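Many introductory courses stop at the sequence. We go one step further.
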Amino acid sequence: MKINRAALSAHVFSCALLLLAGACSGPQVVPSPAPQPTRRPAPPPPPPPAQPAFKDWRDAPQTPGDWRYDNGTARFGSAGATLFALTCNRTARTVSLIRTGTAPQSLPMTVSTSSETRPLSAEPAPQGAAQLVVTLPARDKLLDAMAFSRGRFAVEVNGLPTLYLPAWPEVARVAEDCRR
């Protein structure tokens, strides 16, 4: 039997091409659908910025703002935003300390001066006003301590930023007006 070398070469070449073509094309794979991203719950909101701790409240920077006095009321804050107020009720001879903020119930309020620190209980203002109120007799020594504190006094209410307020004449004026 005589082998035709040209035919054999052509046959081997054809087989090699078929194998090569088959290797290149690979099996037909239907792509699977892209995975759906899983919904992750939103991250919790960041905690409120912590107030820096000071060894002594007198080292804390003063709360930005100014005192304004008008007809028996001294307000501290910036234009249009009162943070704290003292107001006189001449009929009852009382002075109310009013901190802007809300709460569903009474909250502890602490007033610190250079000569006295007093814990108080702040009540939510009537008619749903966003205020917490402490009412003191007009002759209460705490009012004098606030007025004559060395430079400033602090008002702290649970859950609200501490206020470091300057002891300007407006504080004394409210107390004096209420004592007459």
